[in-house]
Design a protein that fits this description.
451 residues, alpha/beta, Alpha-Beta Plaits, TIM Barrel, 2 domains, eight-stranded mixed beta barrel, five-stranded mixed sheet, GGDEF_dom, EAL domain-containing protein, Nucleotide_cyclase
């Protein structure tokens, strides 16, 4: 057999390199990353010394990409790649494995602390400003790392562990570095277990709405109810919404879960007196889903619930992900008579300008201010300022988390009209709520008869 011509060998080599290269940045790609890990594991088969890998994700890249444009976003990614490549020693490797995600291999890093320190240095390097034409942009990054200890571990296993650590870093806050631990693995398994059980529960319609009264503080008359999701699993038992709601949000279950709870809640609320409203929370991810408004209207049509009796609650943080999308959804809902409330005011990231842009019907003062209103002067002044602002904007106000009579009296003195909290009632299921309404209705009848 004649040897292949030199030109043919060159083309084959170039094609092979191309298959392992990211076209935008010139770094290696996922295939290159796994190839490097596999080779290193093979080299150390007789003496499996530890080494570290990591995954680095740019924080807030999408908003910058949207603001400056895709071409500028690509330019920033190229600058990121150049900085990371320059930061690698002769033994280390960096690759691009996702849109704004980079993976690195440190063959001579043998401990968690060393991995953490080297990765912190990468994040610091990436924090310097980026030139985009005549403008500059700033980025931060989060990272997760894992260490190779056993020949049973593969590149894919190590990457999965690093991704788990990255997920934890993202939850911790921007610019964080987390190294994978055994405890993290157990927590990840529990989250996956809850996720699978929740998917089954949503499909089977087993998540139920509970209702907490919202009252007129001066008369103590119930004016509406907030809907809260509650779930008791046949194996796990009662699962706190503080646990399953974030999991539903992060794992893409929140849409079906929310639709299930809203359908059940509006079916139950049809039997309430017509002057009572139903309040329902939308998650941040629903505020970027253009189908959210149509889904809500479809459920109201199916259940026959009057849109004018529905209030949608959204948070300040939820508005920040995609303000334009959130505004479209809010406008669609308001167009059919649905009222919109800003929840947890004072604890999020939005500016006061959002109150003007979104035209909220109601504002809910966060429980953190209410809890300290009796002994903390700053909280008292903040609540007074919020009430004065809402009066000027023509917005109703509800104070959340009222647990003591003295808190309710102080808020009434300040001119706060609405209140919600354990003082007036804990969340109850549909049957108990109907019983509560019958009881309060009978009390009103007796009061009118005796007057």
């Amino acid at each position: 057999m004649q040897p292949a011509p030199a030109q043919a060998r060159t083309i084959t080599a170039d094609q092979s390199d191309f298959a392992f290269t990211d076209a935008l940045t010139g770094l290696g790609n996922m295939r290159r990353f796994f190839d490097k890990i596999d080779r290193l594991i093979e080299e150390r088969a007789d003496d499996p010394a530890p080494f570290a890998i990591g995954v680095l994700d740019l924080d807030g890249f999408k908003p910058i990409n949207d603001l400056f444009g895709r071409a500028a976003g690509d330019e920033i990614l190229q600058q990121v790649a150049m900085r990371l490549r320059a930061a690698m020693d002769t033994h280390s490797t960096v690759t691009r494995i996702g849109a704004d995600e980079f993976a690195f291999l440190f063959p001579l890093v043998f401990s968690e602390e060393a991995a953490r320190e080297k990765t912190r240095l990468l994040i610091e390097i990436l924090s310097a400003p980026y030139d985009v034409g005549h403008r500059t942009a700033r980025l931060s990054a989060s990272a997760g790392c894992s260490l190779y200890y056993s020949e049973e571990e593969t590149g894919e296993v190590l990457l999965n562990k690093a991704e788990t650590a990255l997920y934890q870093a993202k939850r911790t806050g921007r610019g964080a570095v987390v190294v994978y631990t055994r405890e993290m693995e157990e927590a990840a398994k529990r989250v996956t277990h809850i996720e699978q059980a929740l998917r089954r529960a949503v499909a089977a319609g087993e998540v139920e709405p509970h209702f907490q009264p919202i009252v007129d503080l001066e008369t103590r008359r119930t004016v509406g109810f907030e809907t809260l999701a509650r779930w008791t699993d046949r194996d796990l038992g009662p699962v706190s919404p503080g646990i399953f709601i974030p999991i539903a949000e992060e794992r893409g279950i929140i849409g079906p879960l929310s639709q299930l709870v809203l359908r059940k809640a509006t079916e139950a609320a049809r039997d309430w007196p017509e002057d009572l409203f139903l309040s329902f929370n939308l998650s941040p991810s629903q505020l970027v889903d253009h189908n959210t408004g149509l889904q809500i209207l479809s459920i109201l049509e199916q259940t026959g619930f009057d849109p004018r009796r529905l209030e949608i609650e959204i948070t300040e943080t939820g508005l920040m992900n995609d303000p334009a999308s959130a505004q479209r959804i809010v406008e669609d809902l308001r167009r059919v008579g649905i009222r919109v409330s800003l929840d947890d005011f004072g604890t999020g990231q939005s500016s006061l300008g959002r109150l003007r842009e979104f035209h909220f019907d109601k504002l809910k003062i966060d429980r953190a201010f209410v809890a300290s209103i009796l002994e903390d002067r700053p909280s008292e002044h903040i609540i007074r300022a919020i009430l004065a602002m809402c009066e000027g904007l023509g917005m109703e106000v509800v104070a959340e988390g009222i647990e003591a009579e003295a808190q309710a009296e102080r808020l009434t003195q300040f001119g706060c009209a609405g209140g919600q909290g354990y003082l007036f009632g804990r969340p109850c299921n549909a049957d108990a709520t109907l019983g509560y309404l019958h009881h309060t209705g009978e009390q009103k009848t007796l009061q009118r008869a005796s007057s």
